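Lab manual, section 2.4: Encoding a predicted structure.

Procedure: take the sequence of the chain (227 residues), apply the prediction step described in section 2.3, and record the output as structure tokens. A sample record is shown.
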Amino acid sequence: MSEYVIPKPPIVAVPVAGGGRFPVRRIYCIGRNYAAHAVEMGHDPDREAPFFFQKNPDNLDPSGEFPYPPHSSDVHHEVELIVALKSGGTNIATTEALDHVWGYAVSLDMTRRDRQAEAKKLGRPWEIGKAFERSVPVGPLQPATEVGHLAEGRIELKVNGDLRQEGDLNQMIWKVPEMISYLSEYFELAAGDIIMSGTPSGVAAVEKGDTMEAIIEGLGSLTVKVV
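Recorded output:
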């Protein structure tokens, strides 16, 4: 007899370039981590304490398709660098933070912007606008041992060939080591955790039939069709 009283949920995993899969424990997402994006969302770009929200591991989707979600008429793209951890802990020093990174990937933080705006107005959590099914299209993870640690490099997103978002990883307000260190003060990080590191300016709506191409220098591209 099984020790579980219902069928055990499957392990969520992201494909790895060259073979294998990376099992995912948690997803932490930093908000407004590029100054120009903070401005376009109506906020002061000055450096302030970072804030995070979470998505669910099973929101990750490597299929190359993004089903337009229900209960929204304003769904936005946000191209982001994913940071995948191989180990963790608490109170991690910034000087040691990159020792915990397994690799990196190109991803999209798809957002029901109208539902997020309603939640903000009412002072409610963002999950209804952020943590819906298949809301994180993701490319294959690439090991830091092969691509290095990405502190700079072009990040952009095109829709149907037209450039929508562009920036550089060095424009992050909070850099990757700082994000890891800050999170570890409030959570016990562990192997399998993923950090979505924010998006540059240019977020905008997509429609069914659109093709999104997310590109991060050093990691290649991720092509996703809105269906």
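Check your result against the sample. The domain at 13-226 is CATH 3.90.850.10 (Fumarylacetoacetate hydrolase; domain 2).
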